[in-house]
Amino acid sequence: MKFSLLLFILFQKIKRAARTNKAFQSYIKTMEAKILIKTADGKRGRMFIFDRGKVSSLRGDQPGFSAALIWSDAAIAFKVMASGSDEASFHAAAQGKLKVEGQPFFIQWFTDGVKLIM
Amino acid sequence: MANISGGHLVAKYIKEVEKINTVFALSGGHIKSITDGLVKYGVRAIDVRHEQAGAMMATAWSIYTGQPGVCIVTAGPGFTNALTGVVNARFDNIPLVLIAGRHMVKDDLKGALQEMYQVEMIRPVVKWAATCYETKRIPEFLATAFAQAIEGRPGPVFLELPLDIVGVSVPEEAAPMPTRATPKFTTHPDDVDLKRAAEIINAAQKPLFLGGSGVTFSDCEVALKAFLEKTGIPFQLHNYGRGVVPDTHPLSLMDAGFTGLMLALSQADVIIAAGIRFNWIFQSGQAISPQAKIVRIDIEPTEINRNRVAAAGLVGDVGSVLNQLSPFVQKRDHSAWITTLRRAYLAFIDTELKLREKPSDPIHPIRLVEQIQKAMGDNTLFVTDGGDTCYWAFAGFRATEKAGMVVGTGGLFGCLGTGIPFAIAAKLARPDKKVLLLNGDGSFGLNAMEFDTAVRHNIPFVCVVNNDCSWGMVKHDQELSIGKECLSCVSLPLIHYEKMVEGLGGHGEFVTKDEEIIPAIQRALKSGKPACVNVITDPTAVSPASLAFYVSLKVD
After folding, report:
1. Residues B292 and B438 grouped into a single domain
2. Which one, of B26, B29, B66, lies nearest residue B47 by Cα?
3. pLDDT mean over B16-24
4. What pLDDT score was predicted for residue B181?
5. For residue B182, is it within any domain?
6. Do B442 and B516 have their domain in common?
7. Is the domain of B431 the same as that of B462?
8. Least CB-CB distance to A101: which of B340, B351, B542?
9. What is the pLDDT of residue A115?
10. Do the beta carbons of residue B426 and residue B381 sit within 8 Å?
11. Which residue has the higher pLDDT, B550 or B110?
12. Domain match, B266 and B316 both
């Protein structure tokens, strides 16, 4: 539940930044990408859709992503994402609790974009 | 004693003083005395179809042999055609000696054929440039040119020989051949700097070693391997340094590819960078964790703090510095860090690993690379040229010896068209090895006529064209930055490049299915001819390098 709420709040921040944050507007203005963040069982997740400056999102597991961050469970996902630590993500990946599918570049792009608005 | 012409002095010097047996040339009226001399003194001249390719082959000769590469071109357009290859050598710090003809001194300002002032044009892109105005001083000028090319940080040099200097004769005793007391001088860091570097290395918990072209030109296989094995530090070797310690070494992180490199850079607490620049690939140093301490080893002092201030800087030849540093460093075991790092980057490249394992239709380029590696085995020199193509080759091929995997396009100049010249030079330099070139279809066209050079000189190699019918990296950049509906100047038709190679006397194969890849390469190898295996691949495949290219060119 906390993980789903975190994803929802993250989208609200992204949506707001896309309207008001000039650096973020510049960052996303040419990108077309769909970033899915979900649990491995697919029960929780959200797709963040970037379409040349416009942002939207879809709740739950979604097909057609550019890249996906797949967490072993919601609790670890919440803990690591809430910490905002690259090192925590690194260790989660090393421990088999986080996996990337699709193009890793899009995950890097998304992570760097989120840092702009935090 | 008999007289000797200026052109023959050139050939005699190359053969007898530098002990170089192969040069790259394209004939011309202003250099006929030199090419005649090459025949007389038994210097093999690989005569190319375009001077650009000649300069690139000479560059690659230097990489594969350690000797300075020599390219000889005629005045005017022969000279200007060579410039792209020279600039590429400059950006990559390769010791290339370009010798060009020139109009006669007595014709200055008269509107002579191909009258131009070449030294002024080339000076900004070479280490040293000069015109020799006296025939008997040609050996002296050549000695200076070669010394300038190899001493300190290597680089290209230029010597211009006017027709009325190179075409006249002098008594042989008036132009003695110089002897070289020592081929190379070195500088060494102070003990205090070595101890400072060792303290940092000994205290590291998550170290990473990065080596570049400076490793290859240092000729330091033994010193580097000993240093890495004593310190237990995992490594990636880039540019022309790839393979100096094989990719198959237990400490190698070459299987991490670009994605794993970025991850390692963000997590390492100490980075030892030897003979490598923090250029755009490293986001000018921004890709490295701000907390990481940097130990920089470079023959060029101005590189030590470039783009990132080093905690310790050691100026000198990489191998020499490592030999000096080794007594100060402790034997360590970083296997826990290496295991953690490996598990993490494998989680990030999971998709790519799966793509390698299974057949795809259309063929995915990383699957093509996997099949090529299976067909060729490890006793192979791999070369690649292109945009996305270079990434797939970089990530998928294994280098098991020095310069075993060369990305000619991967240098700072990003010079497409290097593939075929580099492959030809690789085979000439190491004839006992198989040579496999993976070429993008766009870049293939830039020097494709050099297949004629390979056929005429009987230089067999296999060129696999990763044919996505486009200038793929630029296409993907346009898709990201402008939009898929606005692509311009990036499409290519489906061209039967293999037929072109057959027409030149080589062997051709055309492949559209996964199961055809390995048999086609085997037939190409068996033909014993320069061969082209034209493989149609997935045009939608985008490499991480393509995306990095897009980021590096993004205008805020």
Report:
1. no
2. B26
3. 96
4. 59
5. no
6. yes
7. yes
8. B351
9. 87
10. yes
11. B110
12. yes
The CATH code of the domain at A2-110 is: 3.30.1050.10
- Judged by CB atoms closer than 8 Å, whether chains meet at A102 and B351 is answered as yes
Residue B180 in domain: no
**Higher pLDDT pick, B1 / B242:** B242
pLDDT tens digit sequence for B276-316: 999 888 889 999 999 999 999 999 999 999 999 999 999 99
Mean pLDDT of chain B: 95
Beta strands in B306-461 (DSSP E): 312-315, 380-385, 405-407, 434-440
Backbone CA torsion sign across B322, B328, B330, B331: positive
How big, in percent rounded to 5, are the helix, strand and coil portions of chain A?
50, 25, 25
pLDDT above 60 (res B54): yes
Determine phi and psi for B159, rounding to 5 degrees.
-125, 130
Return the CATH number at B293: 3.40.50.1220
Name the pLDDT band for B259 (thresholds 50, 70, 90). confident
CATH number reported for the structural domain that contains residue B132 in this entry: 3.40.50.970
* Residues whose CB is less than 8 angstroms from the CB of residue A66 and which lie 6 or more positions away in sequence, other chains included: A33, A34, A35, A102, A103, A106
Domain boundary, last residue among B319, B346, B373 = B346
pLDDT for B186 equals 79
pLDDT computed for residue A8 by the predictor: 96
One domain, residues B383 and B428: yes
Contact A103 B544 (CB under 8 A): yes
Which residue in B205, B206, B259 has the most chain A C-beta atoms within 10 A of its own C-beta, making it the best mutation to test that interface?
B259
Cβ <8 Å between A93 and B343: yes
Q: What is the mean pLDDT of residues B40-51?
A: 98
In chain B, the residue whose alpha carbon lies closest to the alpha carbon of A22 is B556
- Interface predicted TM-score (ipTM) of this complex, two decimals: 0.91
Given the structure tokens 């000198």, which residue do they identify?
B316
Q: Is the domain of B26 the same as that of B164?
A: yes
Q: Please give the tally of structural domains in chain B.
A: 3
Taking contacts as CB-CB distances below 8 angstroms, the residues of chain A near B343 are 93-96
Residues B367 and B337 in one domain: no
In the structure, what pLDDT confidence band is assigned to residue B494 with cuts at 50, 70 and 90? very high
The DSSP bridge partners found for residue B533 are: B464, B509
Domain of B239, in residue numbers:
191-346
The overall average pLDDT reported for chain A is 93
Q: Check whether residue B39 and residue B140 sit in a common domain.
A: yes
| Cβ B530 vs Cβ B449: under 8 Å | no
pLDDT score at B183: 63
B174, B208, B235: which is the final residue of a domain?
B174
DSSP B470: B
pLDDT at B5 over 90: yes
Asked whether residue B184 is assigned to any structural domain, the reply reads no
* pLDDT at res. B556: 64
- H helices then E strands: how many in chain B? 23, 19
Nearest CA in chain B to A70: B347
Nearest to B403 by CA among B382, B389, B417, B424: B382
Name the minimum distance, in Å, from the CA of A106 to any CA of chain B.
9
Residue B482 has pLDDT above 90, yes or no: no
CA distance B80 to B74: 10
How far is Cα B411 from Cα B407, in angstroms, rounded to an integer? 8
- Partners of residue B348 in chain A, C-beta under 8 Å: 93, 99-100, 104, 107
Number of CB pairs < 8 Å for A and B? 60
Mean pLDDT of B130-156: 96
